[in-house]
Amino acid sequence: MALPSGFGERLEQMEETRNQRLSLLQAEKELQTTKSELFAAKLSDIKFAERRYFNLERKIVSQQLFIFFLKSENDRLDTDYLRSLQDVRYLKNEVEDLRELEKEKEKYYTSENGEMNEFMEHLENFVVELQVQVEELRSYTNQATLIIQITL
Predict the structure, then answer these.
(1) 83-111 pLDDT, tens per residue?
(2) How many whole angstroms separate alpha carbon 128 and alpha carbon 118?
(3) Which domain of life is it from (predicted)?
C-alpha cells in the first residue's frame, strides 16, 4: 500500500523536524554540560579563593596578635625603663645625700678632733702644772718636815 505523497512528505518533514529538535536538544545538553563544568570550575575557583581568603585572614589575625604582643612588651619595657630611671635618680639623690652627710661627718670629726687635741693639750698642761704643784708641795712638805724635825 502506497502512502499518499503528501503524507510521506509530511512524515519526512516531521522526521526532519524531530531530528532537528533532537540535534538542538543534544546541542543544548552539551551546552548545559559545558555550563555545568564551567560552573563547577568557577565554584572550585571560588572555594579555593575563599580558602585562600580565610588563610590570609587567619594570618592577618595572627600578625595582629603578634603586633599586640609586641606593643604590650614594648609598653612593659617602657614602664620598666621609666621605673629603673626613677630608681637611678632616687639612688643618685641618695648617693649625693650620703656624700653630703659624709662631708658633714668629716667636718664634725675634724672639728671634734681639733677640740680633742686642744683638750689633750690643756690636760697635758694641767697635768704638768699639777706635777709642778705636787713637786712644790713635796718640797714644801719636806722643808716643813725638816723644820719640824730641827725644832723638835
Answers:
(1) 999 999 999 999 999 999 999 999 999 98
(2) 15
(3) Eukaryota
Kindly give, in sequence order, each residue whose CB lies less than 8 Å from that of residue 3, ignoring residues fewer than 6 positions away.
Answer: 11
DSSP codes of every residue in 52-95: HHHHHHHHHHHHHHHHHHHHHHHHHHHHHHHHHHHHHHHHHHHH
The CA distance from 105 to 107, in Å, is: 5
End-to-end CA distance of the chain: 213
The pLDDT of residue 4 is above 80:
no
C-alpha Rg value of the chain to the nearest Å:
63
Cell of 104: 658633714
Whole-number Cα distances in Å, 78 to 11, 116, 131? 97, 55, 76
Dihedral through CA 144, CA 145, CA 146, CA 150, nearest 10?
Answer: 100
